[in-house]
């Protein structure tokens, strides 16, 4: 069999007892694709002399870590977010079994191995490709499982904002899964595996797909651009900063959170449509006034480079502020919001073109914080009162999920909650 010959889904490593990673040799950036040996098990066979997997394919993220994967990693080229509701009649027992299955699958897939149950073969030839799978619990999960006493206060529903145009059918959910990878097939493979694992225990409530720039597309790593063309992420909190952990993660002790949320975080997920036809009618200068930063290099309008501190007081020859009072990057700053901060880790989305020619595209805005009230809610309240960007965007769906810390070796995500 050669690479060009079709394979069937029966030719899975799970069935053959051979891992995809073992066959591909992706333990490091120099992992070699197997040739004839692979063919012997009807697997990812490559002709002699095949080139090694690139570092994109070989990149592997550990599953058993302090904070769940998919929060601290760099943006991935492809993403899926999916919310599930527990099936009628399913409760804590079914949820526990499901979290065990999902965790096991996440661990295997992130290591470049096949899932244990009916692997689809979609990712057969690829390495882990920096796959991350992240799990969270929504407000409604706790009543469904009789665990109301364990529900964190921080999961109380988000307030409404005047600019909300929220579709309830695409909001909230008992369970939330975020999948990211630097390969589209690896990401979709994970999505199918997660959905299959849900079995009769849970049903998909909504699902969204996103993307970011592919690794290697730019001459050197740089801040990603969104679909408005802006560099987006410049002022994200950095793990090297002294208050990073305090802002993004629930501490192991000494907070209002239940113990099972130690080392966890809260994810706010908003589908924000961009009104691109209106946006693209603006001149470059007008676009830059809306954000308060230059489009080309992300520098503040007060000058310097992308990382130069924004001078909020600087005025031009007419005495006008160079960074307008309603500029998005001015009013969303922590120092304008009592220190409120969040880690933004979005995907862009494009779900086709409406009959009137309008692109259904924008930002799957995902942000992480130790306390959504002191992060997203505070900043969004401010933006709601007068963000120059608000004319060009529309919040269409919303979710808030409690994302526990990473699973221990041999354990599963949410064990502290479900067995606590
Ligand atoms: C409630 C939180 C936020 C929403 C919603 C939001 C939407 C949104 N933002 C952009 C583009 C940019 N945002 C930028 C900075 C920025 N945005 C937020 C928060 C929300 N954005 C914060 C906290 C910050 C950082 C502020 C700071 O500390 O300086 C920028 C500038 C570059 C950067 O720092 O990332 C851009 C560009 C879009 C397009 C959008 C909705 C579609
Ligand atoms: Fe923003």
What does this structure look like?
By secondary structure, this protein is α+β, with helices and mostly antiparallel strands. It has a domain at 19-53. The chain has 13 helices and 9 strands. It has helices at 13-16, 20-24, 36-40, 55-58, 92-110, 139-144, 184-198, 244-248, 276-279, 284-291, 328-331, 373-384, 415-418; strands at 78-86, 132-137, 175-181, 202-211, 265-274, 343-344, 347-353, 359-369, 393-403. The strands form 2 sheets. Strands 5, 6, 7, 8 and 9 form a 5-stranded antiparallel sheet that branches. Strands 2-3-1-4 form a 4-stranded antiparallel sheet. The radius of gyration is 22 Å and the shape is globular. Fe (ii) ion binds next to loops.
Helix/strand/pairing category: alpha+beta
**Distinct ligands, ions and cofactors found in the model:** ligand L6N33NVT, fe (ii) ion
Our measurement of the CA-to-CA distance between the termini, rounded to an integer number of angstroms, reads 51 Å
Our count of helices gives 13
Largest sheet: 5 strands, antiparallel
Helix % is: 10-25%
**Low-confidence spans:** 1-46
Integer-rounded radius of gyration: 22 Å
Q: List SSEs in N-to-C order.
A: HHHHEHEHEHEHEHHHEEEHEH
The backbone outline, from C-alpha atoms, is globular
Number of strands: 9
The averaged pLDDT comes out at 89
Regarding quaternary structure, how should these chains be classified? single chain
Beta-strand percentage? 15-25%
Subcellular location: Cell envelope
EC number: 1.11.1.-
Catalytic activity: heme b + 2 H(+) = protoporphyrin IX + Fe(2+)
Function: Involved in the recovery of exogenous heme iron. Extracts iron from heme while preserving the protoporphyrin ring intact.
């Amino acid at each position: 069999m050669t690479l060009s010959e079709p394979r069937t889904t029966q030719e899975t490593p799970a069935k053959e007892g051979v891992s995809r990673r073992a066959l591909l040799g992706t333990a490091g950036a120099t992992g070699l694709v197997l040739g004839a040996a692979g063919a012997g098990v009807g697997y990812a066979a490559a002709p002699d002399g095949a080139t090694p997997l690139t570092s994109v394919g070989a990149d592997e993220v550990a599953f058993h870590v302090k904070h769940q994967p998919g929060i601290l990693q760099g943006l991935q080229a492809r993403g899926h977010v999916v919310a599930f509701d527990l099936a009628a009649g399913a409760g804590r027992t079914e949820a526990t079994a499901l979290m065990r299955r999902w965790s096991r699958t996440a661990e295997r897939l992130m290591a470049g191995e096949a899932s244990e149950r009916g692997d689809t073969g979609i990712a057969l030839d690829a390495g882990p490709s920096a796959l991350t799978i992240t799990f969270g619990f929504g407000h409604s999960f706790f009543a469904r499982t009789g665990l109301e006493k364990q529900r964190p206060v921080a999961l109380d529903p988000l307030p409404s904002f005047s600019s909300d145009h929220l579709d309830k059918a695409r909001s909230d959910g008992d369970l939330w899964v975020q999948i990211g990878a630097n390969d589209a097939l690896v990401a979709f493979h994970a999505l199918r595996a997660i959905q299959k694992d849900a079995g009769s225990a849970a049903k998909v409530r909504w699902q969204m797909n996103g993307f970011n720039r592919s690794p290697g597309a730019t001459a050197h790593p740089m801040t990603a651009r969104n679909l408005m063309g802006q560099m987006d992420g410049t002022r994200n909190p950095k793990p090297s900063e002294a208050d990073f952990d305090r802002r993004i993660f629930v501490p192991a002790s000494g907070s209002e959170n239940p113990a099972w949320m130690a080392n966890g975080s809260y994810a706010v997920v908003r589908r924000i449509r961009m009104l691109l036809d209106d946006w693209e009618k603006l001149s470059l200068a007008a676009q830059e006034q809306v954000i308060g930063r230059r489009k080309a290099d992300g520098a503040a309008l007060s000058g310097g480079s992308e990382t130069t501190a924004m001078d909020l007081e600087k005025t031009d020859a007419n005495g006008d502020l160079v960074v307008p009072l309603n500029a998005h990057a001015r009013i969303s700053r922590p120092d304008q919001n009592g220190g409120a901060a969040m880690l933004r880790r979005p995907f862009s989305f494009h779900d086709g073109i409406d009959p009137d020619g309008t692109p259904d595209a924008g930002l799957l805005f995902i942000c992480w914080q130790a306390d959504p009230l002191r992060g997203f809610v505070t900043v969004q309240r401010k933006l709601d009162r007068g963000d120059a960007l608000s004319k060009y965007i529309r919040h269409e769906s919303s979710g808030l999920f409690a994302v526990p810390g990473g699973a221990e070796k041999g354990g599963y995500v949410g064990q502290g909650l479900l067995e606590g």
